[in-house]
């Protein structure tokens, strides 16, 4: 084809229209390339391990139709921005940023790649090509808290948190509320260590709290360090977080909250393949199998297991919600009236602690 | 055939330039061997880590942004180390500099004016200097080792960030996340090349290197720092006060670390977050030594280290190299450099067996 003036106008017109088309609808693709960004190591046996299991799940289900890449140990700051651009430039059609602190970077980079679908785990800033996804971890906490309320001798649990964000606060509150349903004197002592993954800090926090009389430990950090300390010190027990950690503390892990991201990742990948992806905002839990409970330890008595299973079943069929009033905060003021259930919006901006939670420093 | 180390009459100039280059090359060769042996594509690893960031023009902006803080801090450290003042706490001074700049940005939030950024930069430098003056004071008054105090103060500064962003400086719109609000436009470092992320801090870093080189090689101040470091007795005899040198070295290195901190928070971060400390202050120690404690060398070394960071990420996505590989390559580089330094003062001489028979 010679480039006549008329053709030139046609071609350049099409070229100009291309970016517009790209931003208005996502085209169908034959083969999908997915990028994953992890804040920690895939060998942390917890949160990042679970996301990586989700990646492997997609690979297994989609076979040759998918190629995946991942970058681990990405700091929550400008370094993440570079990694996102790198993945987008390498031709990823779908990118999962799996930690809260990646949000700023995603919001900056996503508009530069309107044809790429981005999804941000546990975040709150969406965009024309940024979807949000999260899991109702607090449902698992309610099961853990039920066991803790039954088994704790001192009536005190310790909770290692990363940052005081709603996601973490919600988990602490769910543990306290469910524990106090069983034992009204049950209390939770949170400690924030300002990192998602630092086994030394997690272990130090666990030791300090055990010295102060807690005999149950829960954590919202990414690895099994706290459980290992609990095992070493022989306290009643603790819970796996993100993945089944029983291999690290077989006597001590009472049960575990398992993040099962695979089905969500598969659904998003299939949507991109079909050209139907749109930025969503999903928040799934036990019912959708995105949150699973690990095996109960043999030392958990049968009646306690039955009670835990009841809480689990209630959350699956919708008959039980841990954030149903009456709920008082830790200053004694009523926050949720009897019979009222907190809305998702209220949960996602939770910045107060329920009765029985010691105010953290 | 045997070898013997023999002291040179004069330190070798050639070797002092050759060893950094040799260290980088040896790292590439040994790195390729090690990663091949443990089952990765070793040659690919070296190619992705050391060459891809250079050959892919899209990566140049990342190199500039990553190298800028390393160069600025590294230049300051090179001046201090020349004077035998071992400031190991540049990370802490970088943090306090960033915090001081953040303070100004929050105080002037919502305001406009050209003066806000310069004021932030000034505050950042003063913050870094103030934080470096603690070990300087302890050293000159009580003779406390500055390596220890400057290092430990780094950990204190990290806690200072956590305190400030959890309570007084917390973003009212941040859903409870411990971070400050996003700086307003006037407190953000402008991008100098449209369409890229290259900010004003990049040319500033190069300028800092050039100015420092000029001062160190052409001025009395530079002469004093070099003499005190190389020959403390002669310096004392010549009337150079040791305490004054310590103060100068700490203030210069602290001020530059603070400058890097404020440029980083006003540029790439645009708000203070818990992830602000990313070990630039520690990595800059490698940069200072790899650059032979010469500001011009530091500029090159800063780029080399930036290449390994950027390339390390490329290697993760293209050949599945674990993230720890980047650290291994950087550590090997420093190791070979320090090991190679022996060749500056000593020479390797081949000796015949009969020659050593008497001494063996």
TrEMBL record, chain A:
<dbReference type="Pfam" id="PF02608">
    <property type="entry name" value="Bmp"/>
</dbReference>
<dbReference type="InterPro" id="IPR003760">
    <property type="entry name" value="PnrA-like"/>
</dbReference>
<feature type="signal peptide">
    <location>
        <begin position="1"/>
        <end position="27"/>
    </location>
</feature>
<keyword id="KW-0732">Signal</keyword>
<dbReference type="GO" id="GO:0005886">
    <property type="term" value="C:plasma membrane"/>
</dbReference>
<protein>
    <submittedName>
        <fullName>Nucleoside-binding protein</fullName>
    </submittedName>
</protein>
<dbReference type="InterPro" id="IPR006311">
    <property type="entry name" value="TAT_signal"/>
</dbReference>
<dbReference type="InterPro" id="IPR052910">
    <property type="entry name" value="ABC-Purine-Binding"/>
</dbReference>
<feature type="domain" description="ABC transporter substrate-binding protein PnrA-like">
    <location>
        <begin position="32"/>
        <end position="324"/>
    </location>
</feature>
TrEMBL record, chain B:
<feature type="transmembrane region" description="Helical">
    <location>
        <begin position="63"/>
        <end position="81"/>
    </location>
</feature>
<feature type="transmembrane region" description="Helical">
    <location>
        <begin position="147"/>
        <end position="165"/>
    </location>
</feature>
<feature type="transmembrane region" description="Helical">
    <location>
        <begin position="93"/>
        <end position="109"/>
    </location>
</feature>
<dbReference type="GO" id="GO:0005886">
    <property type="term" value="C:plasma membrane"/>
</dbReference>
<feature type="transmembrane region" description="Helical">
    <location>
        <begin position="298"/>
        <end position="319"/>
    </location>
</feature>
<feature type="transmembrane region" description="Helical">
    <location>
        <begin position="115"/>
        <end position="138"/>
    </location>
</feature>
<keyword id="KW-0472">Membrane</keyword>
<feature type="transmembrane region" description="Helical">
    <location>
        <begin position="325"/>
        <end position="344"/>
    </location>
</feature>
<dbReference type="GO" id="GO:0022857">
    <property type="term" value="F:transmembrane transporter activity"/>
</dbReference>
<feature type="transmembrane region" description="Helical">
    <location>
        <begin position="192"/>
        <end position="216"/>
    </location>
</feature>
<dbReference type="Pfam" id="PF02653">
    <property type="entry name" value="BPD_transp_2"/>
</dbReference>
<feature type="transmembrane region" description="Helical">
    <location>
        <begin position="246"/>
        <end position="266"/>
    </location>
</feature>
<dbReference type="InterPro" id="IPR001851">
    <property type="entry name" value="ABC_transp_permease"/>
</dbReference>
<protein>
    <submittedName>
        <fullName>Nucleoside ABC transporter membrane protein</fullName>
    </submittedName>
</protein>
<keyword id="KW-1003">Cell membrane</keyword>
<feature type="transmembrane region" description="Helical">
    <location>
        <begin position="21"/>
        <end position="43"/>
    </location>
</feature>
<keyword id="KW-1133">Transmembrane helix</keyword>
<keyword id="KW-0812">Transmembrane</keyword>
<feature type="transmembrane region" description="Helical">
    <location>
        <begin position="272"/>
        <end position="291"/>
    </location>
</feature>
